[in-house]
Amino acid sequence: MAFRSNQREEGYGGADQREYNAGREGYRNGHVSGNIYGSNGHGSGGGENRRPRYEGTNGNDNFGGSKGPAQRPDPRKEGGQSQAVNKSFYKPSPAVLSRTEAEVAEFLNTNQVVLSGRDAPKAIENFCEVGFSPSIMSCIAKLGFDKPTCIQSVVWPIALSGRDMVGIAQTGSGKTLAYMLPALVHIGHQPPIQRGDGPIALILAPTRELAQQIQQVAKDFEHATSTRNSCIFGGAPKGPQAQELQSGVELVIATPGRLIDFLESGRTNLSRCSYLVLDEADRMLDMGFEPQIRKIIKQVRPDRQTVMLSATWPTEVRSLAEDFFTDYVQINVGSMSLSANRNILQIVDVCEEREKETKLLMLLDEIAQEDENKTIIFAETKRKVDHLTREMRKIGWAAMCIHGDKTQGERDWVLKEFRGNRAPILVATDVAARGLDVEDVKFVINFDYPHSSEDYIHRIGRTGRSKKLGTAYSFFTPDNSKQVHDLIDVLKEANQTVNPKLYDLKNHWKARAPTSGRGNFRSAGRRPDTADGKGYGCAY
Questions:
Q1: How far apart are the C-alpha atoms of 132 and 94, rounded to whole Å?
Q2: Is the dihedral of CA 301, 307, 312, 314 positive or negative?
Q3: Where does residue 14 fall: left (phi above 0), alpha (psi -120 to 50 degrees), or beta otherwise?
Q4: If you count Cβ atoms within 10 Å of the first and of the last residue's Cβ in the chain, which end, N or C, has fewer?
Q5: What is the mean pLDDT of the chain?
Q6: How confident is the model at residue 513 (pLDDT cuts 50, 70, 90)?
Q7: How many helices (H) and strands (E) does the chain have?
Q8: Alpha-carbon distance 203 to 300, whole Å?
């Protein structure tokens, strides 16, 4: 890919800037409404574009559907009482039933899975063991999935059995599909919605980017399941979103704030919602959404099924589970402690603040030599994000940026350019990048080290996804010394080489230990060369 622009420019001027502005205006003036809201058939659908809802199931799955289309009962009984929710659809296959307890234990131990809770069903090991319908299986094959990820193997039998569950797993583990397919199966076994009804399934996510990415997974299966979905989030016009909700959708993916707006205005309701997902629960709580989440949950019917996914298991997340979950199963994939993806090589350069910008440009020169070089750079403030992007573009780097002051159209266009490799360097703040899911990010650079180890793990988790290898570089200054103890713990837990200067800061964290020279990116923490000879191997 073109890591550098074809010509140098001053700031955002020149041909590249005209193209940037044209793309941005295109998104402002219609592309957003077309692609996000579905008025042209590419979104989640609305009004006359919606396909008719198929009734019943095709009878070729293990989830108890009848053969051929069938009329579902009305969702409301006489007297206004809600009909009981059907939540249990899973029937273990003969292969699963024949698996011994020792074989199950070996599978869990090999994949570092710990289960806690009453009578958790056995994990499956292949897609054919789940009992998905032929249409879903065909869709899975078209998407190129060979076998379930670890969390999918464990979650599907539990979720399809109607159990509440909490999953603690790294980003990039396949968790979205783990809760999405049970949601779609659940929807298919409920009475059909009518105009004015709220959704049957609700997925809450911390950011609009993550919400949109979740919706894309739902879209991958919308034809296979005849399920309509809507994605609602702040920073976009309310009108089209409200129209979708009021026309009737079975699945809603939402950020908490915008959903509260629609609930309070009467644009939707949660009286039909019987499958609730809290995705990246720890991030939602970190962002201050706990009051909104609690308010939303209290409006969902009490006999719901609730699923929560989180990368960490802090006290606040535990409290939420204890308050709102019933007889839940907890799934821990990997270490119970704060841990980073072991497919990520972590390199820390201890330096002074004034050295960071020069070191960044030198590092980009190194990264540019790699065949795969898509990079995300994190900076603390919007001003610094703009400054770094401007300086990189001045000397020819193909860099773009996102932060909280960008409009939704600008953010969408920048992410489209980044995903399409037309701008392989993305500079971002934490808030703008939360929930960002781009499969082929090879490098993450922490220009400014974050304020917590949780943020550090979430940042570097943008690379090393889907079992691919990635590299994370971090500039760590004496001003970051309060985080040095936790950083060392994270590095050691992931079997990474710890820069000796971090130990110096740990012992004398108030003392400034100036460094000089280019830094140690070429050698610090380097693992033995991989088969491709580039030395960017997985941490052992």
A1: 15
A2: positive
A3: left
A4: C
A5: 81
A6: very low
A7: 21, 14
A8: 12
Query: What SS3 string covers 463-516?
Result: CCHHHCCEEEEEEECHHHHHHHHHHHHHHHHCCCCCCHHHHHHHHCCCCCCCCC
85 vs 274: CA distance, rounded Å: 7
| Dist CA 253 CA 233 (whole Å) | 9
Quote the tokens at residue 251: 């699945």
Cβ atoms of residues 472 and 444 within 8 Å: yes
Token pair 């180890």 is at which residue? 453
* Per-residue DSSP letter, 448: S
Q: What is the pLDDT of residues 437-486, one digit of tens each?
A: 787 899 999 999 999 888 898 889 889 876 789 999 999 999 999 999 99
pLDDT of residue 287: 84
Write the DSSP string, 139-196. HHHHTT--S--HHHHHHHHHHHTT--EEEE--TTSSHHHHHHHHHHHHHHTSPPP-TT
Instruction: Give the type of residue at 359.
Output: K
The residue to which tokens 């939402």 are assigned: 254
Contact by Cβ (8 Å): 163, 305? yes
Residue keyed to tokens 């919602």: 273
Q: Which residues contact 415 (CB under 8 A, 6 or more apart)?
A: 209, 402, 426, 436, 438
Q: Give the contacts of 135 (CB within 8 A, at least 6 positions apart).
A: 58, 223, 224, 225
User: Under a CB-based contact definition with an 8 Å cutoff, are residues 523 and 499 in contact?
Assistant: no
Could you report how far apart the first and last alpha carbons of the chain are, in Å? Answer: 29
Task: Evaluate whether 203 touches 193 at the Cβ level (below 8 Å).
Answer: no
CB atoms within 10 A of CB 192: 18
Q: Which residues contact 47 (CB under 8 A, 6 or more apart)?
A: 243, 247
Laid out side by side, the sheet with 329-333 consists of 113-116, 329-333, 165-168, 305-310, 275-278, 201-204, 251-254, 229-232
Q: Dihedrals φ, ψ of 415, to 5°?
A: -65, -35
Residue whose C-alpha is closest to residue 343's, from 76, 536, 117: 536
Please choose, from the candidates 348, 363, 349, 309, the residue with its C-alpha nearest in 3D space to the C-alpha of residue 332.
Answer: 309
CA distance 245 to 269: 9
* Stretch (H or E) spanning 243: helix 238-247
Q: 334, 149 in Cβ contact below 8 A?
A: no
The model carries a pTM of 0.64
Amino acid at 294: R
Length of the chain: 540
> Within 13 A of 451's CA, how many CA atoms are on the CB side?
5
Give tens-digit pLDDT for 157-202. 999 999 999 999 877 788 999 999 999 999 999 999 987 899 999 9
H-helix or E-strand spanning residue 278: strand 275-278
Instruction: Measure the CA–CA gap between 474 and 360, rounded to whole angstroms.
Output: 10
Considering only the C-alpha atoms of the chain, give the largest distance between any 2 of them, rounded to a whole number of Å. Answer: 79
The C-alpha atoms of residue 253 and residue 402 are separated, in whole angstroms, by: 22
Give me 81's structure tokens.
């009482």
- Backbone φ and ψ for 231, nearest 5 degrees, come out as -115, 120
